[in-house]
Amino acid sequence: MPINVEPSTSSGPSPAPALAEAPKPARSASTPEVASGRTDIPPLGPGRRPDGGSMRPLFVFLIAAAAALTGSIVFALVHTGNERELEQLNEARADVVQAVDEGRAAQDGLAAQIEAAENALAASKGKVLDGALRAELAGHVAAAKELGDTVPPSIPEAGAAGLEAAEDLDALEAQATEWSMTMQTASTTLTAATADVQDSFRQWQQQREDAQAEADAAGDQEADAAAQLTEAQATLSSVTAQLKISVRDSKYTLDWAAGLKAPTAERKALMTDRTEGEAALAARADANDLTAVQGLAEEREAARVAIEGAAWAVRATAADGSNGRLAQKDLCKVGVGPEGQNQYLRCDAAEDWKRLGAAFEAELGKPLRVEYGYRPYDWQLQAMDEFGAGQVAAPGTSNHGWAAAVDVPVDDGFRFGQPEFEWLAANGPKFGWEHPDWARAGGGREEPWHFEYTG
Predict the structure, then answer these.
(1) Is residue 252 part of a domain?
(2) Which of 68, 49, 57, 52 is nearest to 22 (CA)?
(3) What is the pLDDT of residues 310-364, one digit of tens each?
(4) Same-domain status, 197 and 327
(5) What are the tens digits of pLDDT across the range 89-120?
(6) Which of 134, 156, 232, 406 could be disulfide-bonded to 293 (CB atoms 3.0-4.6 Å)?
(7) Interhelix angle 56-123/166-259, nearest 10 degrees
(8) How large is the average pLDDT for residues 286-302?
(9) Helix (H) or strand (E) segment spanning residue 275
(10) Residue 249: partners with Cβ closer than 8 Å, 6 or more residues away
(11) Cβ–Cβ < 8 Å for 240, 285
């Protein structure tokens, strides 16, 4: 009876076919024992060894064992090959999973990027240098919104349906890579387009700011020019008034000097300067032309300074130390009067006046100014003509002529009852300066602005 070996259930090469039963040996006509004539030995039966055993079962066992061993080896080889292939699929599948994860991360970030892009579009409406950038960004936003709803490729486990062989992996990898790259490209493109719009918006803002700065600068320049013109016009007005005073007073100086038969050269120089002053007063300038106004003011100021200098030169020729005829070199300057003329006092009186002024300013927070100090004889003549004998001392009799009296500005608070006057009247004597009785309220002429030095 033949023995069949069942093939392995695992895939792989088919097992070797079962062996057929070996043919039986032909029986000989006689055995050696028979041939020898021995009758006490029984004859050998079929399939029996001479020692009385049978070889057939052993042969069958060996053949069956060999067949089983061969099947086991084949099964082991097939199983090992399958495990190696599965391991390779798992390794390759991990790369596909990573690609999908990267795409999913990009997809997850699209929502925030879309929001940022829409905010940029809203903020930059009508406010970019290149409108095409906004249109391009809007297109990227629409595309990103569509991609945000797409589902990534499904990746089965290695060995499962859809991923059983390398060719399955190739197709799946192509799908996953394409999907991932689409997500990542959409993300980077949207981010870049948003940045482009934001940059264009910032450039637009910068241009607006620059334009506004230029406009502001132009406005500032215009305002500065207007302010400068206003200041120049005020200066011209002040200088003009002062020059008129100098031209007027110089006539008194010339008449007084002529009566004293003062040297001709000094008087002639004053006459020349006075004539130039009159010409400067007659000159005109466009009131809206800053340069012209400034130029005329400078011309008139120069004429005034020249007249004042020439007048002092004439006075010097008549200086004899008497009232109103003091030498300028013996006096000390204490300020500038409202007509632009320097004001002088005796130097000792000037020193005490400065100390009084420091105390006044410390107490009241304002400077103690001098409106008039020393009054030369020719000035006293002019004052007599302007105010009359009842208001002005006769030339040669005023304390102003001795450079020992001052008149302070009434508008600085020097009226009876005001703090400035009351403080100066009360504290002036500490520094040698008094308000005389005749100038007090009810004292006669009542001059709250007049103070005299008593030393």
Answers:
(1) no
(2) 57
(3) 999 999 999 999 999 999 999 999 999 998 999 999 999 999 999 999 999 999 9
(4) no
(5) 788 788 888 888 988 898 889 889 999 999 99
(6) 232
(7) 20
(8) 98
(9) helix 264-282
(10) 311, 378, 379, 382
(11) no
- In b/e form, how buried is each residue of 188-221, taking b as 16+ CB within 10 angstroms? ebbeebbebbbebbeebeeeeeeeeeeeeeeeee
Does residue 69 form part of some domain? no
pLDDT digits (tens, 9 = 90+) for 178-211: 889 998 999 999 999 999 999 999 999 999 999 9
Confidence band of 66 (pLDDT split at 50, 70, 90): low
Q: What angle do CA 191, 195, 201 make, to 5 degrees?
A: 150
pTM, full prediction: 0.60
Sign of CA dihedral 360, 364, 365, 370: negative
In the chain, the number of structural domains is: 2
Last residue of a domain, one of 194, 218, 242: 218
Handedness of CA 153, 154, 158, 163 (dihedral sign): negative
Query: Is 356:431 a contact under the CB 8 Å cutoff?
Result: yes
Dihedral pair phi/psi, residue 242, rounded to 5° = -65, -40
User: What residues contact residue 214 under an 8 Å CB cut-off, 6+ apart?
Assistant: none
Tell whether 245 is covered by a domain.
Answer: no
Task: Say which residue the tokens 């049978």 belong to.
Answer: 54
Give the 3-state secondary structure of residue 434: strand
In a domain? residue 79: no
Strands (E), 298-385: 331-336, 342-346
Chain-centroid distance of CA 291 in Å reads: 37
Q: What whole-number distance in Å separates Cα of residue 244 and Cα of residue 277?
A: 8
Percent of the chain with pLDDT over 90: 64
Can you give the residue range of the structural domain that contains 345? Answer: 320-455
Domain shared by 451 and 325, yes or no: yes
The CATH number linked to 447 is: 3.30.1380.10
Query: Within this chain, do residues 327 and 455 fall inside the same structural domain, yes or no?
Result: yes
* CA–CA gap between residue 185 and residue 179 (Å, rounded): 10
Residue 128 identity: V
Interval 46-66 mean pLDDT: 60
Cα–Cα distance for residue pair 431/355, rounded to 1 Å: 7
Q: Give the number of other Cβ atoms within 10 Å of residue 40's Cβ.
A: 5
| CA proximity to 449, closest of 418, 432, 429, 430 | 418
Q: Are 18 and 2 in contact (CB under 8 A)?
A: yes
Region of residue 159 (phi > 0: left; psi between -120 and 50: alpha; otherwise: beta): left
